[in-house]
Design a protein that fits this description.
mainly beta, Jelly Rolls, 7-stranded antiparallel sheet, 41 strands
Length: about 525
């Protein structure tokens, strides 16, 4: 059972009601909030929320009711931007408002109405607060008072978000946890009370998955079995039943679950045992490998062979995940069929190297990239064909005046779990294709049995000797192939299977499988 903390703003023309709270951290460049409210009369203008200095001499962010619409106004220092919702027809109703801002651009949605957007270019992109800035609800001098009830106000809390992330980030969904403002300690206020429960329950604040109970001073939502939260709007985790096997991690995904399998296991619940060699990546945020950190401070040397299946994708990435103000990183990636090395040693200065060799899909290439102190180098070779640009090494010097790469993260190969939160101007997709012979600073990583984690979408395309039943069942059932011959030889079962088998990391291969009765198998590739 969930007790609701609410704030009612009674009408008082002489002393308008209001309440103030501290401004949550990290809202300067990106702001996302969820507001649930009930207006006594939606046709009556009123201030819902004010963020900034009440004198309005500096930057501000305002949500109010005007002419029976919800309006957003904000000023970042270069003039006011504004956008308004559709006209609200239900005079007495509960409204859900979602507002998102990134830089000078913003979107707003009320209930299930159409999103309204403000897209613009401005040299001013941050909300700058001063010592007098506050978060105020209900009324501010010079604005009409809101009369009604605010049921909930949640604001994103991008804790530990790097400054370089905030400047680059463009996807609101990547912001971190939500903070319920009404559950924090108010700084000041006047004339506010709790919302009368007998006014709210008839309006069904608990939705279709909850029942509203009236008590003497508040209402409570009793949620159905599969839902929780203040208003029974949060579906319970699909991971509560521990569906993922073999110590795999579980994440909720659109009403279902996603298992991140440990090395050697695959399947929806990590129930299938596999062997990995020359791993193949599918380019999504669920396709990557992670390895233990390696000391890269003075020298970084990455060697890897790739066989791409698409023209763009992240190959290698390390960054500093301990210091929120440290934006050092190093990355190797494929962009429009060319290999790039990108790194920063400090002060947001980024060095970018582009190799002139055109990288062909479905062909193996060898990459050698890195830096010694502030000098970066990049060499790319096509292993299947010779081109004039093979074996050319290009170099460039970082201009920040720094010489050390201060990275602390694990090593990511083939992708990154949260592509939108990477430092640098990097591709938003992971690598698609095959990888082999991976080493960092002369340390060779065994891609068959490495000691890191593996995302659930890394596939293996190696051919190994398995037991008879595994080989025949897996290959024949998956590809719908019939056995070419089944015969009895000396009372022992002999199965011969020949097929054209497409292995993305090996090419088109003819395979014959011979299996004898004791389960031993022989695989012949040609």
């Amino acid at each position: 059972m969930n007790t609701s903390k609410t704030i009612a703003f009674p009408e008082n023309k002489d002393l308008p009601s209001f309440v103030t709270f501290p401004i949550p951290n990290g809202l300067e460049h990106s702001t996302k909030l969820w507001l649930k409210f009930l207006a006594k009369d939606i046709s009556q203008d009123g201030l819902l929320m004010f963020l900034g200095d009440v004198t309005m001499d500096t930057d501000y962010f305002i949500i109010d009711i005007v002419n029976q619409t919800i309006r957003l106004r904000y000023n970042l220092g270069g003039g006011e931007f504004a956008l308004s919702s559709e006209r609200l027809n239900n005079i007495y109703d509960i409204y859900d408002l979602l507002v998102q801002r990134h830089g000078a651009n913003a979107t707003m949605q009320v209930n299930n109405m159409t999103h309204v957007k403000k897209t613009t270019t401005s040299k001013f992109e941050d909300l700058n607060f001063n010592s007098n800035s506050e978060l105020r609800l209900g009324w501010v001098n010079g604005q009409p008072q809101f009369v009604g009830c605010i049921l909930s106000l949640e604001i994103n809390d991008p804790e530990n978000m790097k400054k370089c992330w905030r400047k680059k980030q463009s996807q609101f969904s990547k912001l971190s946890k939500r903070v319920e403002v009404l559950g924090t300690k108010a700084l000041s206020g006047r004339g506010v009370t709790g919302c009368p429960p007998h006014d709210l329950c008839p309006l069904d604040p608990c939705g279709s998955e909850g029942h509203c109970d009236i008590t003497a001073t508040f209402f409570q939502c009793r949620c159905s079995q599969n839902f929780s939260g203040k208003f029974c709007s949060e579906k319970k985790s699909s991971c509560l039943s521990s569906p993922c096997l073999h110590n795999a991690s579980c994440a909720d995904v659109e009403g279902s679950f996603l298992c991140s399998c440990p090395i050697g296991w695959s399947g929806n619940k990590c129930e299938k045992q596999i062997t990995i060699s020359d791993p193949s990546f599918n380019g999504t945020m669920t396709s990557w490998m992670i390895f233990d950190p390696v000391t890269l401070r003075r020298r970084t040397e990455v060697k890897v062979q790739i066989k791409p299946m698409s023209q763009t994708g992240l190959i290698f990435y390390v960054h500093n995940d301990n210091d929120g103000n440290n934006c050092d990183f190093l990355s190797i990636y494929l962009q429009e069929n060319y290999i790039f090395l990108q790194f920063s040693l400090g002060y947001n200065d980024i060095t970018i190297l582009k190799h002139p060799l055109f990288v062909h899909n479905h062909q193996w290439h060898k990459i050698s990239a890195g830096r010694i102190r502030n000098l970066g180098h990049l060499k790319v070779s096509n292993l299947d064909h010779y081109y004039d640009d093979n074996d050319i090494t290009i170099k460039s010097t970082d201009q920040s005046g720094m010489f050390a790469l201060d990275v602390t993260s694990s090593i990511y190969l083939g992708g990154y779990p949260n592509m939108g939160m990477m430092v640098g101007n990097l591709p938003s997709v992971g690598f698609t294709g095959c990888v082999r012979k991976f080493e960092v600073n002369d340390l060779k990583f065994d891609l068959d049995y490495y000691w890191g984690e593996r995302s659930p979408e890394v596939n293996s395309y190696d051919v190994t000797i398995h037991t008879a039943s595994n080989v025949i069942t897996a290959i024949a059932s998956h590809h719908g192939k019939d056995h070419d011959a089944v015969s009895i030889v000396n009372a022992r079962l002999l199965v011969v299977m020949t097929m054209a088998y497409v292995l993305p990391c090996l090419g088109l291969t003819t395979m014959s499988v011979f299996v004898i009765g004791d389960g031993r198998g022989i695989i012949v590739m040609s």
